Amino acid sequence: MKKNLLMGGLLPALVLGSCGVAGAQPAAMDTLTAIEQNPETVNQAKAATEPVTQESLQEMRRQLEDQLQQAQELQNRLNAQLGSLEKRMKKVEKRSWEPQVDIHGYGRLRWDKHNFSDFNGTDRKSVWLNLFVNHRINDRWSLHSEHEFENDLSSNTGAYKEHGKSRPVLQLYAQGRVGDVNVKLGRFYLQSPYKFTYDEKVNGWQVNYGIPTKWGRKAEFTLSSGTSTSQTFHGDTENTKNVWDQYYENTQMLSLMGVIPVAKNTNISAHYGRMTMRDIHLERKTWSVGFDTKLNRDLKLTAGIAKSDSETLNKSHFIQLQYKEARPDVPGSYDFYIKKYLQRGHTGMSNWFNDDIVDVTRGDDTPQLDEKSNGLNRWDYRAGEFNGIRIGLDYVPVRNTKLLLHYTYGKLGIFDPDNHGGNHDGEKKDYSFLRTQLEMYF
């Protein structure tokens, strides 16, 4: 009887003990297989045991497999319960630590100086306040808004006065998830990669989907559509409505962009966009590709090219080299960069030029230019391209602030008014732009 207990209880216990937890099933199977192939090992381990038969070993194997299956089922149930508990804990923590309404933003003190050939320069000082309000509806959906206020310290006027209206609400949209897809609905801010071909608000919808990559960053694809403001039809030879209108506010836009990691510190970007004047059904398409890569720990290179299907002013490019990075949360951090442009007006989908570069017919300083025109007509100096460089420095003096200083210099290429902007007449005018700005975040 004792021998039977030894064989029926001690031997399986030894086998199970050698296997560890239920996750060590292969080891247990190997042990039983070895015993089946060489029953004498049992006698060597326990000299006083009864002879072992193949039938008893098969029965032991069956019992052990049943026990292991039960243990695995129990482990699966425990894992499921732990996973459910973890999700509930995260929801409780999120509700406890994330407020229902979050308000943050930044203020800007800005001083801009533009200088043009044949015109006296402009000098404009302004103060800005941007507030972002986020309202969490539930775990999947939230409501977001941006409110902008500006005062021109040079003329003591408020924002957008020159357009005869005020727009304190720049963005107002709902954001959420449908499955693994991120969704936006409403009025939101859209930027193409590097703000190269699109940088404007959209009244419409957006879907975004990310695919994990081995580089630890997702490949992001974003599709957007809606109505927007565009300057790309200004001076277009096929614009039969008003060829010299600068802003077309009821423009239908479609945008598809992707940013794909291809190496540890390298991304490739692409953008396709289409703008349509609704009333005359005039379409303009733009394509752009670019990349950004870290050459070493502190040096970053970014470049891009773009082309549109417009007959004129339809190619642009840029290249930028940046050293270090200024981060508002790291006092004393800084960066230095140099950027080379060739911007042409019919390449971009939204703005005529990027990075607040203007000619004498655009921007917030046109009233000053009229006062200092020396009898010249600004509209005879409308520009279709900018070719030049920018040198910039950003510095963080204290936490949650940033000081920006950049200088832009180059040539503005003038439209040919006699041909309604269809040809660039080759005349170049000097242009420079100096900005000093202090940002404060809260």
What does this structure look like?
Helix content is 20%, strand content 48%. The protein has helices at residues 2-19, 25-37, 40-45, 54-97, 366-371, and strands at 101-116, 119-136, 142-152, 157-158, 169-178, 181-191, 199-211, 219-230, 248-263, 266-277, 282-294, 299-308, 315-324, 334-344, 383-395, 401-415, 424-441. The protein has a 16-stranded antiparallel beta barrel. Strand 12 and strand 13 (315-324) form a beta hairpin. Helix 1 crosses helix 2 (25-37) and helix 2 runs antiparallel to helix 4. The radius of gyration is 34 Å and the shape is elongated.
What level of helicity do the residues show? 10-25%
Our estimate of the beta-strand percent is over 45%
So what's the overall shape? Answer: elongated
Number of continuous helical runs: 5
Low-confidence stretches: 1-28, 420-424
Summarize the structure.
The chain has 442 residues and is α+β, with helices and mostly antiparallel strands.
Core attributes:
442 residues, alpha+beta, elongated
